[in-house]
């Protein structure tokens, strides 16, 4: 490789690293722009780093805005607090074993369980809220959770957060798209044709000018933003001189949010209805079909909250819990079919199978 190609490869690698974010393993990210439908991105939850997982933001132009959502990480049960660590892992901590401590963005719940939250302020909010829940009666906890669930499922607020993220970052994203094309497209073509020459130096100078404009745009966009972006001026300096920071300047703006992230189902209207409904089915099955479900008269707490939300959104039960046409016993949670004679699905922790009517 020539020096120029090596430099190009280093730029590309630094850019990809800049697109990586460490988020809670159960988090959801949506990417989109003002008028487009948004698409969802999930973290690689197989990799657990400091209680979170890496997530790759959309990297190719036209560069998009991002917004974060969190499913209910903490659900109060009668004797214990249920903690969602990732999509497939959860922990249960009895109320008297709960010892809460915040370390930056990590909330420690007992000596062996911790959860990463999107920001230090949200970690503090949950520390305080869980301490309150601990002192309540089971019925008070149930009501407090349902209230939190209602707030997190506000579809209007979630759509507003997303559209504001797109609006605030519009000019930053446009310039970043130009910068991306210049950096990875035009300069490499010029270099390929003319080798080390003044023309390449001139193209690189244009890149620097674009970065300086981006830095000024960043400072202007974030002048009144609350919460304040950490190290805002240092970041602006980095944007002026480091191409990867200049191309990803919008992420710092759209992903520094103070209000609590919504539940992913609050993105109704933002996502394609079909994709949203699929997510709704998935959340419903996980909340509704837990071991012991055929005997329980009342819905589990999470399912109760979802049920109220679906009713409020006028979604028919057949849409979020479609009836099964299977001839064999089926797991209502994961949909697997079994031979007759088997009563529970081991993959789902012993969820009782649904037996087809004869
Ligand atoms: Zn199953």
Could you walk me through the main structural features you see in this protein, from its secondary elements to its overall organization?
This protein has 358 residues and is α+β, with helices and mostly antiparallel strands. It folds into two domains: 1-271, no CATH class; 277-352, no CATH class. It is 45% helix and 15% strand. It has a three-stranded antiparallel β-sheet with strand order 3-2-5. A hairpin with a 5-residue loop joins β7 (80-84) and β8 (90-94). The radius of gyration is 24 Å and the shape is elongated. The protein binds zinc ion.
Catalogue the unreliable spans: none
Mean pLDDT: 91
Strands, count: 13
**Order of secondary-structure elements:** HEEEEEEEEEEEHHHHHHHHHHHEE
Number of helices: 12
Bound molecules: zinc ion
Q: Termini distance? A: 70 Å
Helix content, binned percent: 40-55%
The biggest sheet, with number of strands, parallel, antiparallel or mixed sense and barrel status, is: 3 strands, antiparallel
Radius of gyration: 24 Å
């Amino acid at each position: 490789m020539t020096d120029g190609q090596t430099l190009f490869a280093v730029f590309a690698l630094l850019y990809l690293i800049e697109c990586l974010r460490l988020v809670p393993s159960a988090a959801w990210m949506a990417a989109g722009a003002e008028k487009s439908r948004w698409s969802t991105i999930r973290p690689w939850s197989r990799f657990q780093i400091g209680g979170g997982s890496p997530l790759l933001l959309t990297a190719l132009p036209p560069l998009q805005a991002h917004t974060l959502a969190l499913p209910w990480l903490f659900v109060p049960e009668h004797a214990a607090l249920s903690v969602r660590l990732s999509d497939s892992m959860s922990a249960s901590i009895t109320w008297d074993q709960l010892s809460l401590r915040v370390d930056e963005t990590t909330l420690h719940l007992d000596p062996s369980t911790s959860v990463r939250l999107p920001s230090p302020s949200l970690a503090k909010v949950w520390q305080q809220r869980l301490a309150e829940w601990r002192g309540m009666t089971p019925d008070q906890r149930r009501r407090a959770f349902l209230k939190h669930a209602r707030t997190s499922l506000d579809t209007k607020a979630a759509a507003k957060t997303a559209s504001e993220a797109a609006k605030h970052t519009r000019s930053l994203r446009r310039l970043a798209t130009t910068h991306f094309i210049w950096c990875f497209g035009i300069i490499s073509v010029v270099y390929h044709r003319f080798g080390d020459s003044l023309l390449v130096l001139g193209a690189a100078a244009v890149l620097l000018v674009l970065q300086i404009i981006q830095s000024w745009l960043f400072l202007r966009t974030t002048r009144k933003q609350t919460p304040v972006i950490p190290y805002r001026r240092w970041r602006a300096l980095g944007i002026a001189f480091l191409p990867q920071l200049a191309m990803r300047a919008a992420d710092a703006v759209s992903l520094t949010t103070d209000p609590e992230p919504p539940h992913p189902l609050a993105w109704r209207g933002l996502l394609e209805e079909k994709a949203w409904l699929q997510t709704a089915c998935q959340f419903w099955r996980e909340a509704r079909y837990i071991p012991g479900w055929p005997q329980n008269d009342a819905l589990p707490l999470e399912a109760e909250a979802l049920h109220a939300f679906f009713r409020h959104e006028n979604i028919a039960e057949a849409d979020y819990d479609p009836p099964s046409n299977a001839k064999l016993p089926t797991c209502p949670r994961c949909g697997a079919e079994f031979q007759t004679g088997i009563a529970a699905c081991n993959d789902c922790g012993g969820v009782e199978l649904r037996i087809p009517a004869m």
